[in-house]
Amino acid sequence: QSILLHGQQAIWHLSNFIDKHVKVKYNPSGDFKSMHRHISKGSWTFSDQDHGWPASDCTAEALKCCLLFSMMPVEIVGEKTEPTRLYDAVDVLLSLQSKNGGLAAWEPQDPLNGWRYLP
Q1: Residue 97 neighbours by CB under 8 Å, 6+ apart
Q2: Does a structural domain hold residue 43?
Q3: Per the database entry, which stretches of residues form a coiled coil (predicted)?
């Protein structure tokens, strides 16, 4: 029974860490598009939310975890992620999708005219 209790505590801490400490809650301040930044609200980064640069693979994996946690009892995972925050993550992933259906790692692929033809 103590192994089960430790497992539940680990899941609770993981859920709390993923949702509260790593997820980016805001887009960069100011006119971030003129600074060649992409939206980041709703994404997850390689490190913490202060880092602020979204990573598509981190966002996708964390979104899967949050969806899994949403099916578990509150006693095990604690407070669940609000649906609007999950929608923000989906928005980030869709915004990173390339024309061919793939996902860019951290910003949309939009090569300057001519650059894509260089070897």
Answers
A1: 103, 104, 108
A2: yes
A3: none
